[in-house]
Amino acid sequence: MPRVPKWLGDAMESVLASKYLTVRVSSVTLLTDTLCQLNLSGDFQGLDFHPGYAIDFRVNDNDFRHYTPSAFDAQEGTCEILIHLHGNGPGSDFISRLKVGEVLKMVIPRGRKLYQPDHQFHFFFGDETALGLFKLLREEIHAADQHYTGVLELSEENLALPARLGMRLKTVTKNPDDPGRYAAASLHAMKTGYPHIFHQGIFYLIGNAASIQHVKRTLRHMGVAVKNIRTEAYWMKGKAGL
Ligand SMILES: Cc1cc2nc3c(=O)[nH]c(=O)nc-3n(C[C@H](O)[C@H](O)[C@H](O)COP(=O)(O)OP(=O)(O)OC[C@H]3O[C@@H](n4cnc5c(N)ncnc54)[C@H](O)[C@@H]3O)c2cc1C
Description:
The protein is of the alpha/beta class.
């Protein structure tokens, strides 16, 4: 439900008031020119949260956009989100304008539980929009004494970000004319380095729908079972909201 008439957006805020949280912006940090770390505080007592759950912001009168917390502490009342400022939509504009101390409405976290705790080996593929989810998954994986690797396709200015965020992941430059191409091309070399992950691991493909398709096709050709591939498209070229 990315776009609704204004009257419906207003009605939802009052009729479904229990689904909305009031949050305060505690910090807005530009990690790079196009990647923003947003920290929020609020009363999150009693909320259920799992990696992969997403919140929504109403970014203007008509549009809602989803974002995935990269950290969420219901006891402390804190929430962190990593947001790609791609500069071409109302969600990106809304986040760019946020100021410390501002009070917002946020739809409570909900969605699919992505972490698959029964697997020892986890493989991440995604772009800037998936960084927050992978940061959180990495913490679950470390806590369970499991292992991860993966490849991210990023704009030039963000290539060093995963390492700055403490993630050991291969990075490739994104190719807007052929999404997923460089990441897919790197998979064969990665299989040589980590054959056990390709045989027994679980693959999380998150972000650009076209890149996910490309990488999934390559993984299937490499013999990865479809049951070991989790996908979630976060955006699609030319489509507003998802
Ligand atoms: C469950 C879920 C969780 C998500 N979590 C996150 C998150 O944690 N962090 C995050 O940054 N994003 C996240 N997203 C993606 C985010 O909601 C989309 O990128 C959304 O489209 C942004 O809205 P917008 O108004 O800025 O652009 P839109 O109005 O939706 O799109 C305008 C144009 O920009 C293009 N576009 C949209 N996103 C991108 C992008 N990232 N790069 C390049 N072009 C783009 C669209 O294809 C369209 O042509 C998530 C999406 C889903 C479904």
